[in-house]
Design a protein that fits this description.
Blueprint (H helix, E strand, L loop, with lengths): L6 E3 L7 H4 L9 H10 L5 H4 L11 H14 L3 E3 L5 E8 L5 H4 L7 E2 L2 E2 L2 E10 L8 E2 L6 H14 L1 E2 L3 E5 L6 H12 L4 E4 L4 E8 L2 H11 L4 E5 L1 H16 L9 E8 L6 E3 L1 E5 L4 H8 L4 E4 L7 H11 L6 E6 L2 E6 L3 H7 L6 H4 L2 H13 L10 E4 L2 H9 L5 E4 L5 H9 L10 E3 L9 E2 L4
Parallel strand pairs: 7-12, 9-13
Antiparallel strand pairs: 1-2, 3-6, 3-11, 4-5, 6-13, 8-22, 9-12, 10-11, 14-21, 15-19, 15-20, 16-18, 17-18, 17-20
Helix pairs in contact: 4-6, 6-9
């Protein structure tokens, strides 16, 4: 992790940091995007999810670049004086939880009790090839979002939001000790309390001796990409294009990242659900009966807590199960037919990969049983929030929601270490970093 001159909102130039920052781009529902834009005209969502003023989709990235330059020219965004790493803390106050970040209920045991407490370092991550075994992806990507994020970075010449990395600090080193000392003993650069009840604080590390100690500690470590696979792939794609054009070494050899010690701050892995337009729940259930054990749940979606408990019981111990819901009804799918399952699975994958609920969802239920490709053109994803997924399904003609269990962390780590990747949009790690607290532009390193 290398230091950089962060770009931050200038004090007094915006209504407040809570009003100009946002969740990551890929978990923002359209109605939330509208609320963020209404909260302050300089909300970072205008940069990460740009809308063309002319209505032409091919102009959205240039519009984002113009907005970013305008905010820099007006000194709404200003660079920090010295390059540094940034200690970043997220902490629950007033009932904030990981779940409330994503619109559902629940909590995780943090380092200091229920709710959220996460601390880490934001810096410029030196890019390495995916097969180098240093930065481990765990999830597949699809080309469209990768190209879109790369085009946005090319247009703005900036990393607008960090990816989220984890490393195993079971043997704590200088980085973790320094993060703790800074967060508990120094005054922050900024503080913001967002509407989900989470307090965000940021400190800058600029002392050469401290930066050297962190670099020495982190150099031999391996990191897992928890969130931001498409952005990391876009970092590598941009680097390859610049190198191919004769650009040589440059700021494109790095990408903005938050690095968290997972031993000190274990993340929670939430589920990512599917919403399928044009597939009526009754038809979805009838088709599934030939490949799964299907059981109607008496309370349907009117008793969602009971339905989710049934899913939890059926998926305990790594068993495969899903809820198929919509129109007030809910059915539990479990015990996939082993012969069909074996035929559906691609060759060259490990038995552990074959046993993932996410793999069964993608290869058997969606592809074989329903004849649907699990991509952004056919299927909508909803992070963590089963109720929102069901509402979304009920709002489209013939919509069906597939409520998925969360993937065990042991599977994620084991598969990544084995060089395998789980299907796209299988895991929702959290708490996710807030976008807009610090930005990295190529001009400032």
């Amino acid at each position: 992790m290398a230091p950089f001159r962060g770009i931050r909102y200038a004090a007094g130039r915006v209504s407040g940091l809570a009003e100009v920052t946002s969740p990551p781009y890929d978990v923002i529902a359209h109605e939330i995007e509208d609320q963020l834009i209404a909260a302050d005209p300089h909300n970072v969502v205008r940069l990460i999810l740009p809308r063309s003023a002319t209505g032409r989709p091919d102009e959205i990235y240039s519009d984002a670049a113009l907005a970013l330059q305008d905010w820099l020219d007006q000194q709404i965004l200003v660079p920090d004086e010295d390059p540094g790493l940034y200690v970043y803390e997220q902490a629950a106050v007033g009932g904030g939880t990981l779940a409330s970040q994503n619109g559902h209920t629940g909590a995780r045991p943090g380092a200091s009790g229920p709710g959220i407490l996460q601390r880490g370092l934001i810096g410029a991550l030196r890019l390495v090839p995916a097969d180098a075994g240093i930065v481990l992806p765990h999830e597949d990507v699809v080309p469209g979002p990768v190209i879109g994020r790369r085009q946005l970075m090319e247009a703005t010449q900036a990393n607008l939001e960090p990816i989220f990395l984890l490393y195993d600090g079971s043997a704590p080193g200088a980085a973790t000790r320094l993060v703790e000392a800074v967060a508990t003993g120094r005054a922050p650069l900024l503080e913001a309390l967002t509407t989900d009840g989470v307090r965000h604080r940021l400190w800058a590390l600029t002392d050469p001796a401290e930066l050297a100690a962190v670099a020495a500690d982190l150099a031999p470590r391996q990191a897992l990409i928890a969130d931001g696979h498409h952005r990391y792939a876009a970092y590598l794609q941009l680097q390859e294009r610049r190198r191919g054009a004769g650009g040589g070494d440059g700021p494109w050899d790095y990408g903005l990242a938050l690095l968290v010690d997972s031993a000190a701050y274990p993340p929670q892995i939430g589920a990512i659900h599917r919403v399928i337009p044009g597939l009526a729940p009754a038809a979805a259930v009838d088709l599934a009966k030939g490949s799964f054990s299907v059981r109607p749940l008496p309370g349907g979606t009117r008793d969602l807590p009971a339905a989710l408990r049934a899913l939890g019981d059926a998926s305990a111990g790594g068993q495969v199960a899903f809820l198929v819901a919509g129109g007030g009804e809910a059915h539990l799918l479990s015990d996939p037919d082993p012969v069909q399952l074996d035929a559906a699975m691609p060759p060259g994958r490990s038995p552990r990969w074959h046993g993932l609920a996410a793999s069964v969802l993608q290869e058997l239920l969606l592809t074989r049983v329903w004849g649907i490709r699990d991509d952004e053109s056919s299927v909508r994803v909803v992070h963590n929030d089963a109720a929102r997924a069901i509402r979304a399904a009920d709002e489209v003609p013939g919509g069906t929601a597939v409520i998925c269990p969360a993937m065990p962390s042991a599977d994620v780590y084991a598969l990544a270490a084995n060089g395998e990747r789980v299907p796209r949009k299988s895991t929702s790690f959290g708490p996710k970093p807030r976008t807009g607290l610090v930005i990295r532009t190529f001009a400032q390193g």
